Amino acid sequence: MKIKLEDVSKTFQTFRAVRGVSLEIESGEMVALLGPSGSGKTTILRMIAGLEYPDGGHILFGDTDATRIPVRERGVGFVFQNYALFPHMTVAENIGFGMKVSKTKRSKAEIASRVNELLGLMRLDGLGNRFPSQISGGQRQRVALARALAVDPTVLLLDEPFGALDANVRRDLRRWLREIHEELGITSLFVTHDQEEALDLADRVVILNEGNIVQQGTPEEVSRAPNSRFVTTFLGDTNRIPASVHDGSAVVGEIRLPAPNATNGAAEILARPRDLDWQSQGPGIAARVLRVIDRPDGRRLVVSTDAEAHLELDVAPEVVASVGATGFVTIRRGQVFNI
Ligand SMILES: Nc1ncnc2c1ncn2[C@@H]1O[C@H](COP(=O)(O)OP(=O)(O)OP(=O)(O)O)[C@@H](O)[C@H]1O
User: Fold this and answer.
1) Is the CB of 33 under 6 A from ligand 1?
2) pTM value?
3) Model ipTM value
4) Residue 205 and which of 10, 282, 290, 324 are 20 to 30 A apart at CA?
C-alpha cells in the first residue's frame, strides 16, 4: 500500500510539532523517520496510524484519503517501544488477540492456525504457552511484532521497536525485521533516533528537525551528501574546524580543501574522524594527543590543537601515538559550510 502525506501539520495547544510535511512511501518500501528527540517523528507515525488527526493537510492510503479514517479501519499494524503485551495472556493469546476483536470474523481453528504460523515466522516456536514475564525482552518484541502482523496489515508502523534492547539483540532483530519485511512485501515505516539503525535497515531515510523534513534519500545519498550542517552533525561524529574560504578553497594554515560552493569569508570544515590523519611531520594542524582509545575496529585519537579545539581522529591500529605526543592533523576529506 502506497502512503502519501500532503502538507501535513499538527499543533498541540500552541506548539507546532509537525510543520507541513509532504512525503511519499512506495508500496513495499521500508522507510525510516530519523531525527532528534522532539522533531515530530512519533507524531507523524501516530497520524498515519490514525491515533492522532492532523490539523492541516491530507494522508492518502493508495488513492483513498485516509486523513479522517479511524484507526481500526486503516489496516495498519503497529509496534511501539516497550509496547506492553497483556501480562495475563499467554504469548499465543497475545498474538491472537487482534484477530479475536477484529471486525473480520475468524473461527477458533483459523486463529489457532494463524498464531502457529506466526510463531514459526517469528522464531517463537514452543513459546506459545509462556506468559510475557517468562520470555526475554527480544522475544517480547517479536511477540509484539507477531501481534501487529496477525491481522494482515498492509502497512506496518514501528516506533523505536528495539529501543530498550541491548546492542547485540538489536542488531539481530533489525536484520531479521528486514527479512520479514521482504518476505511479506509489506510497506513499513519506522521511527528511530539511532542513525545506524536507520541507515542499516531502511531503503530510504527521512531526516526531521523541528517538525520539518530536512533531507530524504537512500542511506548512500544521505551519508555521502548531507545537505546541511545539521544533517552532517546529526548523522555521525563530526569535527568542526574553523577555516576561511578564498576563491573556491577552504584554508586552515597550510591545508587547502576544495570548496566550490562556498563564498569567500569565514567557514567551517566538517570532517568525520575517519577523514582526518595523524602525521609526525607537518604540514598540518599542530596538535597534542590527549587520549588514545583502542577499539576492535581501530584506534581513535583525541587531540588538542593550538587553538585549544579538540579533534577526534580514527586511525589504523598501527599508528603510533601516545598521550602527550605532538604531531600534525591533516584533512583528507571534509564538507565546507560558510558561517
Ligand atoms: N499530546 C501532546 N501534547 C502536547 N505536546 C505534544 C504531544 N505529543 C507530542 N508533543 C510535543 O510535540 C513534539 C514532537 O513530539 P514527538 O513525540 O513527535 O517527537 P519525536 O521526534 O518522536 O521525539 P522522541 O524521539 O523523543 O520520541 C515534542 O516537542 C512533544 O513534546
Assistant:
1) no
2) 0.89
3) 0.95
4) 10
